[in-house]
From TrEMBL, chain A:
Signal peptide as annotated in the record: 1-19
Cell inner membrane listed as a keyword: no
Official protein name in the record: Mitochondrial inner membrane protease subunit 2
Compartments in which it is found: Mitochondrion inner membrane
InterPro entries to which the protein is assigned, alphabetical: IMP2, LexA/Signal_pep-like_sf, Pept_S26A_signal_pept_1, Pept_S26A_signal_pept_1_CS, Peptidase_S26
UniProt gene name: LOC103508763
Record CDD domains: S26_SPase_I (cd06530)
Keywords: Hydrolase, Membrane, Mitochondrion, Mitochondrion inner membrane, Protease, Signal, Transmembrane, Transmembrane helix
Subunit structure: Heterodimer of 2 subunits, IMMPL1 and IMMPL2.
Gene Ontology cellular-component annotations: mitochondrial inner membrane peptidase complex
Record flagged with keyword Hydrolase: yes
Membrane topology, record value: Single-pass membrane protein
Family that this chain belongs to: Belongs to the peptidase S26 family. IMP2 subfamily.
One Pfam entry name: Peptidase_S26
From TrEMBL, chain B:
UniProt gene name: LOC103522436
Keywords of this entry: Hydrolase, Membrane, Mitochondrion, Mitochondrion inner membrane
Ranges that cross the membrane: none
Keyword Membrane: yes
InterPro entries, per the entry: LexA/Signal_pep-like_sf, Mito_IMP1_subunit, Pept_S26A_signal_pept_1, Peptidase_S26
A GO BP annotation: signal peptide processing
Family annotation (PANTHER family): MITOCHONDRIAL INNER MEMBRANE PROTEASE SUBUNIT 1 (PTHR12383:SF16), PROTEASE FAMILY S26 MITOCHONDRIAL INNER MEMBRANE PROTEASE-RELATED (PTHR12383)
Catalytic site positions: 45, 88
First-listed, main subcellular location of the protein, grouped into a coarse class: mitochondrion
Family: Belongs to the peptidase S26 family. IMP1 subfamily.
Subunit comment: Heterodimer of 2 subunits, IMMPL1 and IMMPL2.
Protein name: Mitochondrial inner membrane protease subunit 1-like
Peptidase S26 domain residues: 31-99, 105-145
Length: 164, 154
């Protein structure tokens, strides 16, 4: 009994630290990232969220990457979106209060691939990079969907960046 | 033979130490990330409550248990530089109307309004607007350095 307790006392911090610094697996809910995630409504995708890559001073993120972030509207909710613009970019928006937005320093412009079905920067504006928790690197479940996630901006948003 | 057994002994000792360090590091990480840690403050923005070179204890539990109230001093990430931490007082919660330097502004959902106690010398929400609650890291509960000026903030 004492041994089980002792191994838990060590095992829990080690696993938490592992998840915090290397990465963890999460389920994707909702349709905002269709068709990349959850293409049909019967299956939900599980993705590996890489936390290692966002550590350090120089964040290793670029346009087209899929990231998970804490929702600016609700700190208890995590959302998964694609980076469309990085700091300094002038982005042409879809249905935002202004037609063009310059992404401020330390911020990013994120959008869901499923236009019109996504709560993203077109609703709450550019988000601080401090809210980004991880980069989604691959779909690992179900096995038929196994793939690395490519870093590419969807076709309909290719000309979203006016100047960079 | 002798050399060999000696080598495995060293290896055993080395891996034992390494395992101990890993355990220690992981426990420290968890405590600092989810319970509390020490923060070294610099800058004049929180005078006269906290002076430069003071060390305070920040309590991370209040953030994930969502017990941040108006009047609390908090540690947060700077919105435009995620590697820098700031220490300010919460002066507005979502829905509050706050004075933003030249006009009133409503604090949006999921955000807080932060201001330094030293109003004349503080870069805070009056300059960069309300900050998302996701950027909060901890609530300052007491000052432990300098030792002759221990203080609990309530």
């Amino acid at each position: 009994m004492f041994r089980i307790f002792k191994s838990m006392l060590v095992g829990i911090p080690i696993s938490i630290t592992f998840c915090d610094s290397i990465g963890y697996v999460a389920r994707v809910d909702g349709t905002s990232m269709q068709p990349v995630f959850n293409p049909d409504r019967n299956h939900q995708d599980y993705v590996f969220l890489n936390r290692w890559i966002i550590k350090g001073d120089d964040i290793g993120l670029q346009r087209g990457d899929i990231v998970s972030l804490v929702s600016p509207k609700d700190p208890g909710q995590k959302i998964i979106k694609r980076i469309v613009g990085v700091e300094g970019d002038v982005v042409s928006t879809l249905d935002y209060k202004s037609n063009v937005v310059k992404v401020p320093q330390g911020h990013i412009w994120v959008e869901g691939d499923h236009v019109g079905h996504s709560m993203d920067s077109n609703m709450f504006g550019p988000v601080s990079m401090g809210l980004v928790t991880a980069k989604a690197s691959s779909i690992i479940w179900p096995p038929s969907r196994w793939q690395y996630l490519k870093s590419e901006v969807p076709v309909h948003r290719l000309n979203a960046i006016i100047t960079s | 033979m002798v050399v060999n057994s000696n080598f495995t002994g060293v290896l055993k000792k080395f891996s034992g130490t390494l395992w101990y360090l890993v355990k220690f590091g992981c426990v420290t990480h968890c405590v600092m990330e989810y319970f509390g840690d020490f923060v070294f403050c610099t800058g004049p923005s929180m005078e006269p409550t906290i002076y430069t070179n003071n060390v305070v204890i920040s309590d991370q539990m209040s953030v994930w248990m969502k017990r941040i109230d108006k009047g609390d001093i908090v540690i947060a990430k700077l919105p435009h530089d995620r590697n820098q931490l700031i220490c300010k007082r919460v002066t507005g919660l979502p829905g509050d109307r706050v004075w933003a330097g030249y006009s009133y502004q409503k604090v949006p959902r999921g955000h807080v309004w932060l201001e330094g106690d030293n109003k004349k010398n503080s870069t805070d929400s009056r300059e960069y607007g309300p900050i998302p609650q996701g950027l909060l890291r901890g609530k300052v509960i007491c000052r432990i350095w300098p030792l002759n000026d221990l203080k609990i903030f309530s």
